[in-house]
Every structure is written in structure tokens, then in C-alpha cells.
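User: Teach me something about this protein's shape.
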Amino acid sequence: SQSFTPEIKNIKKSISRWTCSKYHTDTITEVIKDIQRKIGQHQLGIYQYNSNLNNKNRRSLNDLYVLVIAEQRILWYDINKKITSEFIQTWEAE
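Assistant: First, the predicted structure itself:
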């Protein structure tokens, strides 16, 4: 397992493959912005991102990524590669 700060280059590095298919969650740029925003705002939850979720063609290659933002930890799962990473983020005390 690896740890990263949630900078654009690190988020991009943790996404091993992203297709230009119309079946992806969004463009890679928008997905990275979304991940960065959720981490920055400490939006607790489980979020999934699909590189190519084509329901009509089950054999098409889809990379599934899951972002888990919990109280104390932020985990990133690359489901196909079975890799877990952690994003290190310090939030200001409120």
C-alpha cells in the first residue's frame, strides 16, 4: 500500500487506466477534480469511478476505482489491479 498527498499528479498516478469511452464516469480531468474536491472538503462517503462501464457489452474492459473517505483515513482502491493506496490529508481544526 502506498500513501500520497491528494495533488493532481498523485491522483492521476493512482488511476492506472482511463478510457475515452462514452461509458466512463467523466473525463479524467473532471474525475481528478472531483476526487480532489471531495478529499479537500472531507466529504465522508464511498465513491466509485468507472473507466468504461458499458452495460450493453459486458466483456468491454472497465477499470473500477473506489474512493473511501472516512473520519480518519482516505483510501483509494484500484479494484482490477487489487491495489490499495491512501491519501494523506490534514484538515484544519474547525
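Now, about its shape. The radius of gyration is 13 Å. Residues 40 and 92 are 10 Å apart (CA to CA). If you'd like, I can walk through any region in more detail.
User: That's plenty for now, thanks!
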